[in-house]
Amino acid sequence: MSKSLEDFIKKYLNNKLIDNEPRSYSDYKMSSGIDTVGDFTKTVENLYATKKRGLASYGRNYRNLANKGLQNSGYASYISARALDNYDTGVSKASFARSKSEAELLGGYASYIEKYQSKQSSLKSKVTSHLTDTGELNLDDAIAYGIENGLNLENATAVGTAAYSANKRRAFNSIIEEAASLGLDKEGAILLGKKMGLGDKDADELGEEIDELLKHYDSISEGYIKYLEENSQSNTRTFNKKG
């Protein structure tokens, strides 16, 4: 693979990762177009400006009434009190509206996350099925496939690792079984494993498993036959001698 192609794939997968991650609450809130803090602030500023005009009107009315000898009539005080009451009532209503909008946004975000997690769960099943069917034996490719098909990094890593591990176990079983039937030694079994798709690291791990087997038996064939005898009633297939 050329470096330019490798760089393109990395960039593509990075962009997919960003798309696959759930939006944060702040991003969700911004995309809704609802600015609860800004709306509340503007409303309070407008209310405060109205209150100031009302109090200024109170001062003018008080002077006019005083000139007429009616400064104690209560009318000027009524105007002042009404301005203050309107402000307090307006702030309370704005605060209630803000709380209601916030609650609706939180509810909408919770619903969004629930749908997101449900979709991720469905994708995990589909990706696991595909990786199992194809017998993917490259961990990086298994994780990349999950990302490419909509999984976030955490889920792609978990699903890819689990599928790769299960595929590797099945491959080891198959290789050792084939090596036993062909009478191969350790080196022959490793070469067979590489031909069947094992990478160098996994081939080395297979060699270690065969070494463990050969500590107890003279050949892979003998160990495999003994294994079948001891585990004929078990679905667990690992060839390291137990006990």
Give a written overview of the molecule:
With 243 residues, the chain is an all-alpha fold. It has nine helices and no strands. It has two domains: 95 residues; 78 residues. The two termini are 46 Å apart. About 2% of the residues have low confidence.
Provide a short characterization of the protein structure:
The chain has nine helices and no strands.
Number of domain units: 2
- Helix/sheet category: mainly alpha
Order of helices and strands: HHHHHHHHH
* Secondary structure: helix percent: over 70%
* Overall radius of gyration: 37 Å
Average pLDDT metric: 80
List descriptors:
single chain; 243 residues; 2 domains; 0% strand; rod-shaped
Helix and strand topology:
Layout: H1 3-20, H2 25-32, H3 36-67, H4 75-134, H5 139-148, H6 153-182, H7 186-195, H8 200-214, H9 220-230
Helix pairs in contact: 3-4, 4-6, 5-6, 6-7, 6-9, 7-8
